[in-house]
Amino acid sequence: MPLQVIVTEGLLSPEAEHSVFHDLTHLLLELHGISDNAFMTPNIIGEVVVVEKGRSFSGGAPADIAVFELKAPSFVLADPGLQKAWIARGTEIIEKAAQGRVPANRIYGNVVHALDGAWGIAGVAYDNAALGQAVASGIPI
């Protein structure tokens, strides 16, 4: 599941970038009760994108921002309680890592859901049921 963190240059140190990605990955696993899942853990992939200062915006004007976005099948974070936890705790993770360089009101989170059957890993297109079975099996690819 692609996870992308986008931050304005200078908000996170390289060590903090790693920490944020690690912590968001493990937050997602924890929220779904699969913290040690050998199938899912390596399939949370992504990157931290650092945007040159002056090239990130809010309200049409340059601003320091942080965004964390997860692309996932529709059953992931589908429960409203999990959605609220993802956004609140994800924001806390970034705010702490930024050490005051970005306020919570400039940290944005979201989840984009893929169409059922349009989720691919290792060349296999999974529908929600098949992906759920693969995760439940806990068997790595």
Write the layout of secondary structure elements.
Elements: E1 2-8, H1 14-31, E2 45-51, E3 57-58, E4 61-62, E5 66-73, H2 80-98, E6 107-114, E7 119-121, E8 124-126, H3 128-137
Protein name: Tautomerase enzyme
The overall average pLDDT, rounded, is 96
Please, what is the oligomeric state?
single chain
Strand order of the largest sheet: 2-1-5-6
Termini Cα gap:
14 Å
Tell me the fraction of residues in β-strands, as a range.
Answer: 25-35%
| Classification by helices and strands | alpha/beta
What low-confidence regions span 5 or more consecutive residues with pLDDT below 50? none
Q: Profile the largest sheet.
A: 4 strands, mixed
Q: Architecture, CATH level 2? A: 2-Layer Sandwich
Q: Determine the number of helices (DSSP H or I, runs of at least 4 residues).
A: 3
- Order of SSEs: EHEEEEHEEEH
Rg (CA only): 16 Å
CATH top level is Alpha Beta
Percent of residues in helices: 25-40%
CATH superfamily: Macrophage Migration Inhibitory Factor
CATH topology: Macrophage Migration Inhibitory Factor
